[in-house]
Structure formats: C-alpha cells, structure tokens
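[Automated response] Your request has been received and processed.

Submitted sequence:
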Amino acid sequence: MGYDSLISLIDGMASDFLFLDSKEINVPAAGKLLNKLDELIKEADSQKVFQLKSVVRGLSLLLEKTVLDDIDDKEAGFNVLEKGIILMQEIGDSLKNTGGYEGDIGIFMKSIAALTGEQRATSNEVIAEEQLTVEESVEVSQQEHQAPETVEIQDESLLRDFITEGLEYIDEIEVNILNLEQDPENKDYINAIFRPFHSIKGVASFLNLEQIRELAHSLETILDGARNGELSVTSWFIDVILDGADALKAMIVKLKNNLEGRTAEPLNIDLSALRGRIKNIEQGEPDTQERKKVGEILVEEGVITEKGLKEGLEIAQQAISSKKIGETLIAEGKVTPKQVSRALRKQAGQGTDTATIRVNIKKLDNLIDMVGELVITQAMIRQDRIIQSNGDRKLVGNISQLSSITSELQRTSTSLRMIPIKKTFQRMSRLVRDLSRDAGKLVGIIMEGEDTEIDRNMVDEIYNPLVHMVRNAVDHGIDSPEERIKLGKPEKGLVRLRAYHKGGNVVIEISDDGKGLDKDRILKKAVDNGVVDSSDSLSDQDIYRLIFHPGLSTAKKVTDVSGRGVGMDVVKQAVEKLRGKVEIGSISGEGTTLTLSFPLTMAIIDGMIVRVGEKKYIIPTTAISKLLRPTREEYNRVVGKGETINVMGNLVPLVRLHELFDIEPEHQDPWEAIMVVVEGENKSKCLLVDEIIGKEEVVIKSLGEGLKSARGVSGGAILGDGNVGLILDPEGLFELSEM
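Generated structure:
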C-alpha cells in the first residue's frame, strides 16, 4: 500500500508548525493547521491507519481549545502539540519502511485527555473504534466560533478583481512603507502609499464593504496629514500603517475564503484598538519610540566617536545659519558625504510604472509547454537524416531561420515565468524589523541581488525555509547589543540576504554577523541524543550539518521563534523537495552563512551533449571549464587520492561516469577518451566521456517523484533525436564519486 500522500500531508504539517508562536498562537496560522488536520483525518481513515487518525483527532481538539483559550497551561499544550507532530512523523516513517506501525500511542493520548478533559482512546486495543465525540465537539466548536461572515455579493467578477488587486496593493504598501521609514521626509514614498489605500477605499465603497472602506479611509487621512506636513512620520506612525495594512489584508483574505466557499477564519484583529491608535496619531499624541538621530547612527556604526559627535553639535549650534549635524560633520572633515548618506537612508529600489496584463497561470503554463514541444519538433526536423542529406540551400536556410526564431520564442516564453526575488526579500525586511523589536535587539538588513529571477512556482516554496532561517539569525544568531559592545562589534547587528545565479542554479545566501555556531555544543547535543558516537572523527562541516537532524536544537532556551528542535530538518526537507541543497559556513564570533542552491527547473540552459557508451548526457556549459584529451603521461594514480589528470600543472581527480551509472563505455583508458573538466563546490573534477556530440539549448524537465532524489542528476531533456538525455548535476556527481 502506498502512503506517499499521507506522508506528504504529515511533512506539510511539520513545516506549518514551525510558524506557530508558543505563547500567543496566531489564529490564521492555527486555522491553516486545522484544515491540514482535517485532510489528514480523511486520508488516515481512507488508508485505515487508525493510530494516526486517533492522534490527529486529538491534536485537532487540542489546537482548537488552545485557540479558544480553553487550555489553562498553554506552554504545556504547545509541548504536547510538538510531541504530536513528532509522533505523526514517526508513524509516517514506520508506514513507509514497514507498511505498518506497532508502537503504542496510549501515553500521548492520555496527555491530550489531561489537557482537554476529553477521554480519548489510550491504548492500541481500542484505537480502531470510531471516537465520534471529539470530532463532533471540534465540528460544533468550529461552527460556533468560525462561522463565515456573510457578504452580499452584487458583482462577483468585480469582487474577484478587487480581491486580487487589493492583495497586490497591500504588497506595494509594505514595500514603500519600509522605504518611508528610512527616509521619512520623502513625499514620493508617502504618495506611493497613499494611492493604494485610496484605490482600496474607492472600490470597497462601491461594493458596500463598509469595514474595509472605513479603515482604508482612516489610514488615508493620516497619510494625507503626513503629506501636508501636519503629522510627523515616526516609528509609531509606521507601526500603525503596517498594522492597518495587515488588518486590510486579513479582511480581504476573509472575503476570498467566503467567495471560494471555504470556512472563514475569525479576524484576529482588534479593529477598535487600531482605530484608537489612528485617532491618537491624528491628535498628535507624543511618540515614545522616536527614530534615532543621524548622529546616533553614525556613532553606532563606528564612523565617529561620542566626543566627535558632541563637538559637531556644539559647532552646529554656534553657526550663524542653522546647519544640520550631517552638514557640519562633513564640513569639519569628520565624516564623508557617503557615510552621512548611508546613515540617512538605505538605498532602495523604486518601482516603475509598466504596462501589464493579468494572465491566468494555467494559460501561461500551457503556452510554455507547447513552445517546448515546438523546440523539440524543430530539433528533430533539423537532425533528420533526410533533411541533412538534402543539399537544397534554401531549405537549409529556412530551417536555420526556424531554429533561430524558435530559440528566441522559447527564451521569451520561459522568461515569462521568471520573477524577481525582490518581493520575497522585502517581506524578509519586514520580518527582521518585527523580530528584532520583539527580541530587544538592534538588527539591520542588507539585500543584494534583488533583481535575480526565479521561477514563480518556487517563490511560495522557498518562503517558509527563508522565514525560519532569518528567524534563527535574529533570535540566537545575532548577539544582544550589550554583548556586541563587549566584543568590540557595532551595537547594531546585521542580516544579509544575497541572491545570484551560479552554474545553472539560483543561489540564496542568508548570513549574519553574530556569534556563529557553537561546534562543541552541537557535538555534545548530538552525542547525548545518540546521533553520532563520541569516537567519530568529524570535520567542522560534518558537525554543522548535524543541526539538520530532527530534534537537535542547541538553543539555550525555548522562545516563540526557535529552540523546539523542530526546524532545520523541515527546512532541509523543503529545500530538497525543490531538488536543492543547503550548505553551512560559520566562524566563531563572526557569524554564520547558510547557502541555499536551487536548480532553474523552468529555465533554458546551454548544455554540452556528451556520450558515454550508448547513453547521452547533458552537462550545463556554465559548469564546464575545459575540454581535453590527456596524454598517457598526464594520467596519474595517487595514493589516497585515486586517479587524477594533470591539468595545467594541477592534479584534478578523475570521475568515471560509466562506473557511477553502471554502463559499458567505449573507452576505458583516459588517454583514448575525452576529459570534461567541471567545477562545483569550489573544486574541479574530470569527467571521462567517450564523445562530445555538441552544444545545444535545452529545457529542463522534471524527472518526477520517483527520481527526484536521484543524486548526480538535476533533470532531463528531450534531445533532437527524440530520446531523453539526463542533465548532470556536477556537485551531485562529486558527492557520488566521494562515497
């Protein structure tokens, strides 16, 4: 019996669980979990896995009661939720490996009963009996507390457009509000925020969405006051605008759920309190969280000393015409204009108006698929033996022109699915801002490569892993301000996000300048948990990779963000689901860098087609540094290193592809074959092949679920002769060759 769908649902639950807060559960996130639990109950019932069904029902009841504040000890409730997730994963692993589960869930079910007051099945003998009381209580509770708000739909088409555009407006607002926080006097940013609120208000009024219209109007009013100079843009002002945008987004999402017939989640927003905060701003209430002044920022960053700042302030006050501190410090030669500019604002990309048209993604997918078929067909025509033997110059010219046009059409259509990672990075900027304030730390964020494009289907998939790693960086990667000062670091920590293309992959780096990973603590925890043996000889990289093991957390205390031991293993699973990989680099006292690498699954790549025996393979040309046929003297067998080829004075390890893929080659001796020198993971290796067939542009095709975890292969492509060629992953080949 196959349990793939069941295990997939369990993994999704584990991933979503990461983003619940232990002290104050986020209701929308909890609602999402409840929906997943319902799916799990149905799937477990259909597959007759009654132990899992009973566990899931218990978790559903516990989560429901936690959201409704019916659990006295929330910390204990959250710990039981965590144990339930781990137990589900244990059951899923057992089903996958043995086709059944022989463990006893009795102790866990008793802990559920103790917290909820519901007497559940507590031993395997009664698991198979239908326990309707809990399920009915959950359903009744959901009906009472999550009844969808009725909305009279006058024009469904217009409402759908409003929902789509409204959510886009909120994203636009978030980007520009963060820019405004860096440059509070910039009226262009205020106008860029004002316009979306005004648009939301106008359409909401037409559709009789009174709550949305009223809130958008209130936010528009205080923005107008800031635009006219009547109100100051303070951090309190920024907080209210962001919270107002979040409230509007929640209300629009609720409309969407109603329209699609889903169970609406209750709004976890106190609108009356939000209105009160907006009113306080209108009345000019004093701000207790004023932004730091330019001079303070320059001192924080170590550009000037406290004494230098004090002298600058005295000079500025004595000047005949008032001067700003930045101007005074520049005039005195204490700082450069660039340093003042950096302190005043972060450079942020500004959106430009472009003409766009909204297209259903299914239509776009169909277009790309058909263009891919067109490319394959024209390659077959071009390589047809009858066509190649025909000497008609006009026919040859026409086919060449067809190939050129088809390649350009393919390149253009594929690029339609590629979107900049900028919006995802901007969401991380908001996350860092909120997390740093909650943790009482000073943390800034630098983003590089925001225009790097990725497949739109990957955006949602990489969001959760990024969120978790950024949370880790802020929570226990960055030191506290006091610790940083003692260590001679700037008081303000730094998280850096960087994206770029490398070797046919999209690479995303998340780094911080915090304390770095504690190798001794990681190793001790791993030994205590029985993950490794104390006698094992592990490199630094081997130790760092241990944090991806389930249940291994080295956090000194559990927080809302981290420390529960459910995290980096799920992050690794999410990355590997996209056939990506995670690498860790860390220097004690200086910080940690996590590098995510994903294949461009929908991109055209230039590939070198090679033959090994009767099989053809494709190597991305971006990974190839040289092609050569070595002499007998350039071949060496080195003790401890195996076979090597002397490439321009360097001994490069030899990898025999025919041995890795278990096929019969044409040539065994390296001096009779051809060497393809490929690079990956900061090292090079020689791949032994029989023949170089030629260079060709190919579209990467997924190999499907069955082969997605195959090492050394990143995808497939249909070649001009109609056969499928495997696209080789150099780094995966390196791992295979070193096993």
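Summary generated for your ticket: The first strand starts at residue 418 and ends at 420. Residues 107 and 122 are 7 Å apart (CA to CA).
If you did not submit this request, please reply to this message.
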